[in-house]
Amino acid sequence: MALQSASLFNTYYLILKNMDLKDKLVSSFLAFENNIDVHNPVHDVRTEAIKNFETKGFPSRKEEAWKYTSLNSLQKIDFSIFPKKESSLEYKDVKKYFIHQIDTYKIVFIDGVFSSNLSETTHDGVDICLMSSALTKPMYKAVIDVYFNKVASKEESLTTLNTAFSREGAYIYIPKNKVPKKPIEIIHFSTGNDTALMLQPRNLVIAEENSEMQIIERHQSLTNHAVLTNSVTEIFAAKNAIVDYYKVQNDNDAATLIDNTYVDQKDNSHVKVHTFSFGGKLIRNNLNFYQNGERIDSTMKGITIIGEKQHVDHHTLVHHIEPNCESHQDYKGIFAENSTGVFNGKIIVDKIAQKTNAFQQNNNILISDKATINTKPQLEIFADDVKCSHGCTIGQLDEEALFYLQSRGIPKKEARALLMYAFANNVLESVRIPELKVRINKLIANKLGVNLGFDL
Amino acid sequence: MLKIKDLHASVEGKGILKGINLEVNAGEVHAIMGPNGSGKSTLASVIAGNETYEVTKGDIFLNGENIEDLSPEERAHNGVFLSFQYPVEIPGVSVTNFMKTAINESRKSRGLDDMPAKDMLKLIREKSELLEIDRKFLSRSLNEGFSGGEKKRNEIFQMAMLEPKLAILDETDSGLDIDALRIVANGVNKLKNKDNAIVIITHYQRLLEYIVPDFVHVLHNGKIVKSGTKDLALELEEKGYDWIKQEAAV
Ligand SMILES: Nc1ncnc2c1ncn2[C@@H]1O[C@H](COP(=O)(O)OP(=O)(O)OP(=O)(O)O)[C@@H](O)[C@H]1O
Ligand SMILES: [Mg+2]
Q1: Which of B145, A26, A59 shows the shortest CA–CA distance to B154?
Q2: Which of A247, A263, A269, B93 measures 20 to 30 Å from A455, CA to CA?
Q3: Which residues of chain B have pLDDT under 50?
Q4: Element (H, E) at B183
Q5: Residue B129 and residue B174 in contact, taking contact as beta carbons nearer than 8 Å
Q6: Are A275 and A269 a contacting pair, CB within 8 Å?
Q7: Predicted ipTM?
Q8: Contact between residue A338 and residue A368 where contact means Cβ atoms under 8 Å apart
Q9: SS3 for A274-342, per residue?
Q10: Residue B105 and residue A425: Cβ atoms within 8 Å?
């Protein structure tokens, strides 16, 4: 069955070859839908979504939100929308991409297809499994009806594009008062079997009352073939739920990632999203928090360290809808060579959302004349009794500090790295998985090209 | 050990050092005094290799080798240490990690492996005891929020850890209370031996009572205008700099 469908897609692939990406996607939708159950209620959601995408197309730089990030050149690449063939990987060959020092649940995909041999899913009191099952099996229907596509935007074109093709990804449901025994890793590998591959994972994460979980997400291509990932994750945190979500973005040079994450929070819930962006050609993070309750805490932290012609764009949104909530944003960026960065942090405080405490900080270091960062806070505050602080800085490495370190025998390169590390590392304080913290430290040291005299 | 010949240095085209000659031998203690802005810290920075200053003329020799082309870290590896007048705050790097990095980098330059963690801890304990530094201090970010005196004491702790051949102490005494001054001076004296040398930049006689100099130099307007023994420091304390300035003007 799987083989058959793959060849059906191949035929389409040939026909669609010389089209631009939008047309190709829209035309592929038919083939995609034919291959799945059109009587499923999700079918209507997908159909609505493709209509929206067909009208809007890919965002262009004329739109304010995309002023500094261009997807033009991507649209000229002849991406396969469905992988040509199924591939498998040996754990030993990809072990290094896992936080293998600890035991985790694993939901692993290879070229967008679930890999049962690399994964460790569970239904033991909690559901840590596949979106494809959740979207098709009757036992999940009630949950899907309540949550699927409920917080994700129905307007934003790339989100709707993902919705239209939503079929596979991670499905995580943690019932009331439950805490899974271990962290959950979601990893997407691309093998390079296709010269250019587009992936659209769709994740649904539900934390019921008083539940707690930790998730690590990573996208990794194993060759230098182009990959375009347009991912959508919906997170629902009910009363008192705690969700820690870590995004490790360290893909290779030909990979593009567009991450759309939507978080819906209820009373007293705490959701933290950490985003570590080191690798990849282009990364766009759209991180949206909606606070539908009181005494909510939303935390967004990021470390971006890029060079060459890399581009990382963080767009955050926190919508304070109810009173007495907090949000904390702390993004650090280090930009070398010709790299470019964008930070746009939007905070909306509704009129009734009194006693809101919203904090936003974006600090950047440019270590080359040719690197640029565009940083912009966007505050829309309609309540009068709120504490909002925001600040952004753009600077260079402190020459005096550099000399101080060098005068103690630390070579310039290491001294620079140490200063950069010192600049960024407070973001790591809130990482609650020690082994992950060690890993991020190693990735930072690698990225900075140093081996410092102590374990970072 | 250190030989400076007709050294001229400038910053942004403005001349600051205008022909310094100085020779410091192993086992000696030299004091450099002089009015504010005369170029003492500049001299110290230039010796340590700060590239903010451009050496326009003259040479610096360390153990007979011209160090013109050596980077600050290479000078450090060759035994130069500068205790900063204004130690720089480095948030995010603990004193301990900083010292580990510094020590292991200079070991690396000598082809040695990293110091075993056990030895490192022992060394840190020993030296922090010498300077009566609370261990809690060592896990704090380097100099961040340290009081003026704590910063100075921390500089000498670093000196004790690195055991330099040539230590230049730029106003290490300013900011230290009376007890701290004694502790720091005591620490420096313990580190002193016949194979190393110390250059003390100071405005006051007091530190020199603890660390007795073999020579005292007066720097004025970028030049050493007078040299003498420890009695010169006493004389300066009493009379100020006017008479020296006048002498220099003649
Ligand atoms: N980086 C710099 N840029 C511009 N001017 C400088 C710089 N460094 C030093 N100077 C100038 O050079 C002169 C000497 O400064 P220096 O700090 O060496 O004096 P000093 O003798 O150490 O004084 P003090 O006793 O106050 O510490 C001063 O006039 C100072 O303003
Ligand atoms: Mg000075």
Answers
A1: B145
A2: A247
A3: none
A4: helix B178-191
A5: no
A6: no
A7: 0.96
A8: yes
A9: EEEEEECCEEEEEEEEEECCCCCEEEEEEEEEECCCCEEEEEEEEEECCCCCEEEEEEEEEECCCCEEE
A10: no
- Cα separations in angstroms, A255 against A80, A198, A230, A283, B248: 14, 10, 11, 8, 69
Q: Where are the domains of chain A?
A: 6-447
Q: What are A73's two structure tokens?
A: 């050149």
pLDDT single digits (tens) B165-205: 999 999 999 989 999 999 999 999 999 999 999 999 999 99
> What is the length of chain A?
456
Residue with tokens 């450090």: B76
The pLDDT value given to residue A7 = 46
C-alpha to C-alpha distance for A366 and B37, rounded to whole angstroms: 33
List the one residue out of A314, A356, A351, A353 whose CA is nearest residue A332: A314
Say if strands B14-24 and B29-33 run parallel, antiparallel, or are unpaired.
unpaired
Q: Which of B194, B90, B198 is nearest to B146 (CA)?
A: B90
Q: Which of B31, B192, B142, B144 is nearest to A405 (CA)?
A: B142
- Pocket-forming residues, ligand 1, beta carbon under 6 Å: B 11-12, 16, 34, 36-42, 52, 85
The residues with which A335 forms a beta bridge, in sequence order, are A306, A366
Q: Residue B221 belongs to a domain with what CATH number? A: 3.40.50.300
Structure tokens that stand for B97 in this block? 């990690």
**With a cut of 50, which residues of chain A have pLDDT below it?**
1-8, 10-14, 16, 453-456
Instruction: Find residue A221's DSSP bridge partners.
Output: A190
Pocket test for ligand 1, best of B42, B88, B201 (most atoms within 8 A of CB): B42
pTM of the model as a whole? 0.88
Question: Cα(A38)–Cα(A36) distance, rounded to whole angstroms?
Answer: 6
Range of the domain at B24: 2-249
Mutational test site, ligand 1, from B16, B88, B201, max ligand atoms within 8 Å of CB: B16
